Each structure stands twice: as structure tokens, then as C-alpha cells.
Task: structure prediction
Amino acid sequence: MSNAVVTDKGYVFENTPGGAPIKAWTQGVPVDERAWDQLRNTARLPFVHKHVAAMPDVHWGFGATVGSVIPTSGAIVPAAVGVDIGCGMMAVRTSLGASDLPDDLSGLRNEIERSVPHGRTAGRGRDKGSWENPPASVVSDWRSLQGGLDAIVSRAPKLRRPANRAIRHLGTLGTGNHFIEICLDEDDAVWAMLHSGSRGIGNAIGRYYIELAKDDMRRFFINLPDKDLAYLVEGAGHFKDYVDAVSWAQDFARMNREAMMARVLRALREAVKPFEQTATAVNCHHNYVERENHFGKNVWVTRKGAVRARAGDLGIIPGSMGARSYIVAGKGNAESFHSCSHGAGRVMSRGEAKRTFTLQNHRDATAGVECRKDEGVIDETPGAYKDIDAVMQAQTSLVDVVHTLKQVVCVKG
Result:
């Protein structure tokens, strides 16, 4: 960082030559120089409003920096929104306590895995990640989504094939860093928490409009510092179609989490005992774009791995497998565009994690958690992520901690 300075407002400030400033809540956490380069490239886009904000979990990502908040006037960068449109978190507090859980949690984990498809769609058995015959509850939920998707496909016929499969993914987990967890809070209350997004249809929508944006750049001879920053201009071309499609995918993602949570809570009742759901329930995106007002102007705000944190907004900041997670309340910090981090943030790539950590390292790091302890999840081991405590310390001006959670069961795809 050539001209970055630490301010007394809790963030690092850097002027970007030829672009907007960067404000980064990264004190005390490592940030890869590649991520800074990505942030600078984004800040040089001519339609950035005021500045680019970076959260403490910021790290290099495909298309745009993960952990960035990009306010834009008159344009949206589809690759900044990404392909896991509407990815986010949901958490529910129950009336169960730690003493209600069995000593052996493997049965609870198995019940959740039987209840919610997880893993890769193309697999078989344990790895089958979609419904062969969607249950009645999924079919019912799908009715409210079908008409919107049909309208999207009518304007983008290439999306027909993934659209035909979309119902099979509603209420399913997926792979990668998506998970379902049973956690205990500071009072030993039992929580169910999960992380997932818009699955295959969101991926298809994202990729389709990313390519259209790149085609526009080539057609109009627009040279960018990074081709993945290709954008769609408001009022022209495919802009409205994209906004409609993204909005639909974000609705799908929210309903996907709700459908999964219903099945997780049912599994918890089957494996443990009946309980009540308390008033505390949170369902928030962290990969999305919305129209918001900041610094007196209506702009598009793209949160690429960031959670909206207006004053009083409840959000979820998960740690890695084996680490704490947090339910937070936003402080409405204007400088961050009312945002906070979406997790701990990777400190190394998946490939590097597989080369660095052994299976024994992973088992030691997840001791006390009923979860997969095989080579297939080494890239998700806690050491591949930043220290969640340092991440939380760096954003004390953005959020207050409401609950601290520690997982006891973790289901991965």
C-alpha cells in the first residue's frame, strides 16, 4: 500500500491514482497484495460513488475482491455481484439447551444429512446434491418463483436448461464453503445455522450476464484494467433484464435457505426432542446488489462478500469450521455504506490449503465438532481462514456482537 494511512475512524485510507479512494477496515488482519490491486482496479471505474469500502475479511476473488462494497451510479459490474447470487446466511435460536443434546452427535448429523441434499448434483448416494423428486413443500415454494423465472428465460433463452433444473436445487446446500451447523451460544442455547445461495440457476444467470457485459466492452472498444470489471450501463442494453434476473435469484436464495432451515429444524426435533423457535431468526444475503441511498444519492450497492449493517440490522458473521461465529447488530456506519464482513475470509487459496495442511491438522483443528474429517474438506480447514477474533476486532466501528456461537455439528457438501 503505497499511500495508505491509518485513520482515527477505524479504517485504512488509500488514495487511488486516477480513481476513487479506498476505505478498508483491515487493521490487524492480513490482506494479500493481489486483493489491494483488485480494489484499486475497481476504484478506477468512472462510475464509483464516493469510494470503495473493504471489509476485514477481504481477499482476492474471481471478478472482484471478496469482502468489498462497491457503490455505483449508472452501471453495475455483474462479475462483482458474482455467480453465487444471493449467497448468504440464516440462523434460528431454539428453546433447546446444551444439556438436551445427546453425548454422541453423529446421529443428529446423519439426520440432517438425510434431510437436506448436499454435495455435488452429478454425484450419487451421499454426494447427491439435488432432489430426484422434490417434496411437496418444495413444489409449493416453487410456485411463487416459477413465473418470474419464465419471464427471465423469455428474454434469455440460453438459460432454459438450468431453469428446467432449478426446482431440483430449491432447499439444497451445494458444496464449497456452504454448510449447515448446530451451535451453542453464550447461554448454551441451541441454534441452527446455515450458509448457501442460489445454486445452479444463480450461477447460470451470473455467467450469462457477465459474458454479455464483456461483449459490450468489446463492441464499444472499452478497455478496462481487468476484463472481469465489464459493466452494464443503466438504461441501455441488458441492464433491466440483469437487474430483474438478479432480484429473482436473490429471492430464490432466500427461499432456499428458508426451505433448508425448515428441514434442519425438523431433523433436530426428530434426533433430539420437540422445541420452540425463539424470536431470534436472521436471514441475510452477502453476495448481492440493491438500490440504496448513500451520501444523499440513490446508487447501486454491490456487496461482494459483505453484509448490510444499517443501525439495528441483525447479521451473521461465521467463522471457519471449528471457530466461533457471531450474530451482530449493525451500527449504520455511513463510511462503510452500512456494511460489515461476511465471515473470516480466506488467507490462502483452496489449492494452497490442500498442500499446506494434513488430515491430522484438520482433525486437531476441528476437535469437539461432529463433522467430516476427511481429505475432501481440507480446503475448508480453519487454518485456511483469517483469525475470526482479529476480523471482529477490526470492525468494532461497524457492528456490535449480540450472540457468540460455537458449532458442535457441521455438515458440508
In short: Residues 142 and 167 are 7 Å apart (CA to CA).
